[in-house]
User: Fold this.
Amino acid sequence: MNVHGSELILGIVGTGIMGRGIAQLAAQSGVTVRLFDARPQAAEEARVAVGATLDSLAAKGKLSAEDARAATARLQPVASEAALAGCHVVVEAIVEDLRAKQELFARLERIVGPDCLLATNTSSLSVTAIASTCERPGRVGGFHFFNPVPLMKVVEVIDGARTEPWVGEALTGLARRMGHRPVRAADTPGFIVNHAGRGFGTEALRVLQEGIASFDEIDRILREAAGFRMGPFELLDLTGLDVSHPVMESVYEQFYQEPRYRPSYVLRQRLAAGLLGRKSGRGFYSHEGGKQQPVPAPELPRGERRPVWVAAEEAGWRDTLLTLVRAAGWALDGGDRPAPESLCLVAPLGSDATTTALALGLDAERTVAVDLLFGPERRRTVMTTPVTRPAFLDSALTLLSADGTAVSRIHDSTGFVAQRVLATIVNIACDIAQQRIATPEDIDAAVTLGLGYPRGPLAWGDALGPRRLLKVLEAMHAASGDPRYRASPWLSRRARLGVSLLTPEN
Ligand SMILES: NC(=O)c1ccc[n+]([C@@H]2O[C@H](COP(=O)([O-])OP(=O)(O)OC[C@H]3O[C@@H](n4cnc5c(N)ncnc54)[C@H](O)[C@@H]3O)[C@@H](O)[C@H]2O)c1
Assistant:
C-alpha cells in the first residue's frame, strides 16, 4: 500500500480525545480524513475542534494560515459507517471494549474494499483478539498513539499473531508521514511503553512499602539524583490512581502474575480511600486548586567533625570519597582499620549498609553508606544501619552537604533508592528485548518519547554499567529471595561479556 500519495483517504471511527489528535496529524500531513462517531454531532464537533486547534497553531506562527485552512478542509465528518467505503486505512479509537471493537471491525469489513487496512488504537487489549473475529485478520494491526497525540511523537505499530507484514510496513510509513517515530512491537501486554513503564512506579512503591523513605524523599532522589523529570509519586498523582492502579493490575495479570510487575497494596488501599491524586484534590501530595503543594525537604541536622575512614567496592569510588572528605576540609583516617572514634563512610553497590559493615568488619554503630552510582555531583543519598549512632549520621550529613549539595537520608536498603529503581527499569527493558517484543533501538526510542525518561533504558544501563546493574539485581535477589529481582538473561549475558545492552542477537 502506498501511504505517501495525496489521494490517501483515512477513516477515523471514534472522534474523542485520541481520534481528534490522530485526525489533526493526518490532515496536517496531507491525508484526507473521514470522521465517524456513534454519537451524532460528535464528528462535526471534532472537525470544529481540530480546525480551531489548527487555527491557533497558525496564530502562534507554528503553521501557515494557508496550511491550517487546507488541513481543516481535509476533515470530512460523515454520518454513517457506510461512508467509509472508499477509505484506504481505517483507524478505530472508540471505547476500550473488546466486543465493541470486534463488532465494529466485522461491520467495517462488509463496507470497505478488500485492500483496506484496519487499525486499532487500543492501549490494553490484544490486537490479535480484536482481529480474531474478522474475516481477514491479516489486515488488522495496532496503531497505538499517546495522549496528547500531536505532542507525543511516538506511535507503537503492533503486529498481531496473524497480521500480514504489509500492514506493519504501511502503518510505519503512515506514522513517519504524520511526523511521528514508529516503533514496532509484538502484540503483548502493554506493548513497549506501558510494559517498560512498570518498573518506575512498582519499585518506588516497594521502597515506600518497606519503609525505606517517604514518598517525597523518593521523588526527590529520583528527580534530582537520577534525573527523571517527575518523581513516581508525582506521576501517580498526575495520572490518577483510578487509571494507574488498574493498568498495573492488568499488565501483572496478563503476564500470569510475573513478579516483576507485581502491583502494591499501598495503591489499592489509597484508591479505595479516594486519594486519587490531582483530580480528587489529594493523593500522595495535596493539590489545592489543582496545583501540587510542595513538601519541604527536611532540615539536615548539624553534626560534629570527626576523622573519616572510607571504603568502596567499585574502582574509583574510594577516590571520590577521599576527594569529598578533603574538599570539606575534614581529617582522613588513613589507617587499615578505622580508629575507635572515626566515622566509617562506605559506598556499596547493591548491598545495604548492614551487609557492607559486616563484610568489612566495621563497627555498624559508626557506619554510614552513600550512593555513588549516579556520581557525587547531584543529590546524594545516605543510609544507616539499624544501629548507626545519630551523632555519626549527623556528622556524615554535615560532611556530605558541606559543598552545598542536597542530601537525602534513607533507612537501610539493599541498593539504596535510585540503584534499585534504575536496575529494575533496565532489567525490564532487557527482558522486553529478550522476549523479542521489540528491537533494542525501538525500546529506547519508545521509552524516551513515550515516557519522557532522560535516556532510553538500554542506553542508560550502558552509561551506568551493565555489570554494576547486574550486581545490584543479584544483591537484591539474594537479600529478598524475591524473583522480581532475577536478572534478565539479556542483561546478564551482556554484562558478563562486557558489551552494550543494545547488542542484538546475531
Ligand atoms: N486517552 C488516552 O490517553 C489514550 C491513549 C492511547 C490509547 N487510547 C485508546 O484510544 C481509544 C479511544 O480513547 P479516547 O480517550 O479517545 O476515548 P474518548 O471517550 O475520548 O472517545 C471515544 C469516542 O468513541 C465514540 N464511540 C464509542 N463507541 C463507538 C462505536 N462503537 N462506534 C463509533 N464511535 C464510538 C464515543 O462517542 C467517543 O466520541 C481507546 O481504545 C483507548 O484505550 C486512549
Q: What stands out?
A: The radius of gyration is 26 Å. The chain has three domains: 9-187, 195-292, 308-405. Residues 195-292 form a domain with the N-(1-d-carboxylethyl)-l-norvaline Dehydrogenase; domain 2 fold (CATH 1.10.1040.50).
